[in-house]
Amino acid sequence: MALSAELGRSGDPAEAEPTPVRVALLGCGTVGSEVARLLTEEAAEFTARAGAPVELAGIAVRRPDKHPELPADLLTSDVEGLIASDVDVVVELVGGIEPARSWLLTALRSGKSVVTANKALLADCSRELSEAADASGADLYYEAAVAGAIPLVRPLRESLAGDRITRVMGIVNGTTNYILSAMDSTGAGYVDTLEEASNLGYAEADPTADVDGYDAASKAAILASLAFHTRIAASDVYREGIGSVSAADVAAAKMIGRTVKLLAICERVVGPDGSESVSVRVHPVMIPRSHQLAGVGGAFNAVYVEADGAGELMFFGQGAGGAPTASAVLGDLVDVARNRAGGGRGPRESAHAGLGVRPMGETPTRYHISLQVADRPGVLAQVSQVFAKHDVSIAAVRQRDKHSTASLVVVTHAAPDAALRATVDDIGELDVVHEVVSVMRVEGEDS
Ligand SMILES: NC(=O)c1ccc[n+]([C@@H]2O[C@H](COP(=O)([O-])OP(=O)(O)OC[C@H]3O[C@@H](n4cnc5c(N)ncnc54)[C@H](O)[C@@H]3O)[C@@H](O)[C@H]2O)c1
Ligand SMILES: N[C@@H](CCO)C(=O)O
Ligand code: NA
């Protein structure tokens, strides 16, 4: 920017023109088509914001003949050829690990900056991508990879770089939030709701990535890496999806004034000897209906960040869909173009802390357990003994009689997750327990 301004003042019109920033767009689906449209329709605006013309140099898709709406001279199926051409920035909106990984490594190694929405790739390969970017001095930006339009990567990488983050917790998958919200409010069926989420462009190409929690786990890995200055891969994240969340779980949550959400929880854990590690997990959770995350419905995302100095921050907005995700991609693209025009560089990977990952079994959690038990004296004592055996303390018990059986609901205090699991297993073995109706972790204080 400074250089362009200088040239502009020199009075030489030939020198005054800033060099265009040429962009290769890989993929033109839900997100890519919106990026292509805005880059074409609002080219002058992006040029003004970036300080240099932002030119769409080519669009790589699998089948160019399927895109009559796009200028034919920009379309190609030759991805490698487009990356090797005289482009400065590669915007990757294809998804998946390969061939996206190889394309982006090639681009970064040859000094071309990358903007991507590909959380699966970042969660698996951030080290090699960052090293390739550092070796050539290129930029690697990925705001769209976590929570769509919501600025979250930038605040963690830049705004909070001077603080010590202790916790990041929230709803980071729109598809599963859409499904769980519908199950809670209308009792809608799982399959129909998933189809609606896919039609609205929220779900991944393979929706099992959403439903089984892989998408949220990738995002949790990215958030934890940024928050704790530590490389966390998707395989470090404890993961459970919503496939096992039943109507009985949703009803059981309602009975105790809670609702079910799929949460990503990233925490800094300090051991008794003062040593630090991190716990990163994604699983369904019952939260109080009064909790701020309980009101986050549909495909919306919301993430809490807690830091020593800043205290509690909350980020809320549209975490999926073509236009919201394109907003984050284009924000990154303007930043990269500004860096190119001004000769600067965006933030590098920060992984100096190198903290260990605490196994899920050792992570303190709280459980809700709903049982059908025999309605006779001494049953509660037998159940309580199992909790005592595993050193799990009970926070609340509620019992309701129903003919010859009774329903028993127990909410525990925090205990190591392995002890809670062992408690549930042993309870299921008791003769007096007819059915384990619902077991789920809880977060947030009871109201
Ligand atoms: N849809 C969303 O709400 C959303 C939100 C955040 C991030 N993302 C991420 O953005 C990326 C794109 O998602 P999408 O929903 O737009 O996907 P999509 O399936 O709608 O589009 C993918 C595009 O990639 C192209 N493509 C696939 N394989 C290709 C190949 N081998 N060569 C050339 N082109 C190829 C397809 O033709 C299509 O144009 C993914 O990484 C996804 O995780 C999506
Ligand atoms: N499939 C993802 C897209 C946004 O990353 C979701 O449902 O949240
Ligand atoms: Na984002």
Automatic annotation (TrEMBL):
Reactions catalysed, as given in the entry: L-homoserine + NAD(+) = L-aspartate 4-semialdehyde + NADH + H(+); L-homoserine + NADP(+) = L-aspartate 4-semialdehyde + NADPH + H(+)
Residues that bind L-homoserine: E204
UniProtKB keywords: Amino-acid biosynthesis, Methionine biosynthesis, NADP, Oxidoreductase, Sodium, Threonine biosynthesis
Cofactor: a metal cation
Pathway where this protein functions: Amino-acid biosynthesis; L-threonine biosynthesis; L-threonine from L-aspartate: step 3/5; Amino-acid biosynthesis; L-methionine biosynthesis via de novo pathway; L-homoserine from L-aspartate: step 3/3
Function in brief: Catalyzes the conversion of L-aspartate-beta-semialdehyde (L-Asa) to L-homoserine (L-Hse), the third step in the biosynthesis of threonine and methionine from aspartate.
Protein name as annotated: Homoserine dehydrogenase
Organism: Haloechinothrix aidingensis
